[in-house]
């Protein structure tokens, strides 16, 4: 599946810290045969991918639509169809399908939300 991850409050905190377990979950998703894409409503976030050394895991980076999701996919040149989205924004998850992750506002070393998202991906891929 093509799995699209939001950046702000999904992968990084308000302070710009990486959420726990990102690399571990990404590696497991790759091992399971999925492709990982990063997108953000504030633009292409190559600097985040580079800063946290996520390049080996990520197949592409896109600008995320923040409204009129289906129509904006074409306008923003998202040439890979998202099969599953991990985002802290209910609207895009409801519109395109995926998992609504709890926002990662402040750093929390005990955060396990990405593993919950992984379980949701596994469940979805079995249907």
Written description of the protein model:
The protein is of the alpha/beta class and 127 residues long. It is built from five helices and five strands. It has helices spanning 22-31, 46-51, 69-75, 90-96, 113-125; strands at residues 2-5, 35-40, 58-63, 84-87, 98-100. The chain has a five-stranded parallel β-sheet with strand order 3-2-1-4-5, sandwiched between helices. α4 links the parallel β4 (84-87) and β5. The chain is globular, with a radius of gyration of 13 Å.
State the helicity in percent bands. Answer: 25-40%
Mean pLDDT: 96
Q: Class by helix and strand content?
A: alpha/beta
User: Quick one: overall form?
Assistant: globular
Strand order of the largest sheet: 3-2-1-4-5
* Cα separation of the termini: 12 Å
Q: What pattern of helices and strands is seen along the backbone?
A: EHEHEHEHEH
* Beta strands, count: 5
Keywords:
alpha/beta, 18% strand, 127 residues
């Amino acid at each position: 599946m093509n799995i699209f991850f939001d950046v702000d409050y999904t992968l990084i905190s308000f302070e710009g810290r990486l959420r726990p377990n990102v690399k571990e979950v990404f590696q497991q998703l790759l091992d399971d045969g999925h492709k990982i894409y990063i997108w953000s409503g504030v633009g292409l976030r190559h600097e985040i991918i580079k800063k946290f050394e996520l390049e080996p895991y990520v197949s592409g980076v896109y600008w995320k639509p923040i409204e009129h999701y289906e129509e904006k996919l074409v306008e923003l040149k998202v040439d890979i169809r998202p099969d599953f989205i991990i985002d802290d924004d209910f609207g895009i998850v409801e519109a395109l399908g995926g998992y609504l992750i709890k926002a990662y506002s402040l750093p929390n070393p005990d955060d396990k939300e990405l593993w919950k998202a992984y379980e949701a991906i596994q469940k979805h891929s079995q249907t």
